[in-house]
Write a structure and sequence with these properties.
alpha+beta, 85 residues, five-stranded mixed beta sheet, single chain
């Protein structure tokens, strides 16, 4: 298992109640599962599902989260949809 940092932005930060978490995981999917255990609130899950994700500054896109490997020091960014013009 690797130590990964998950950084939350905007509505994700508000829903999590923190700017970041440190989790142990070997894939993006496992890291997100760990975040859901830390923040079992339904609002957090809704924001997470609507968010775009970056892993070490690279967009995840539609890749299955369980196929995106993470390593020690990986930074996962959770970017909810932004409103405004």
């Amino acid at each position: 298992m690797a130590k990964c940092t998950i950084r939350y932005w905007a509505a994700a930060k508000e829903a999590a109640g923190t700017a970041e978490d440190l989790v142990d995981a070997d894939t993006l999917g496992a890291a997100l599962d760990a975040a859901c255990l830390l923040h079992p609130d339904d609002r957090f899950l809704r924001v997470l599902r609507a968010s775009s994700l970056l892993v070490d500054e690279r967009p995840v896109g539609r890749r299955p989260h369980d196929e995106v490997a993470v390593a020690d020091g990986t930074v996962i960014e959770v970017l909810p949809p932004f409103a405004g013009g």
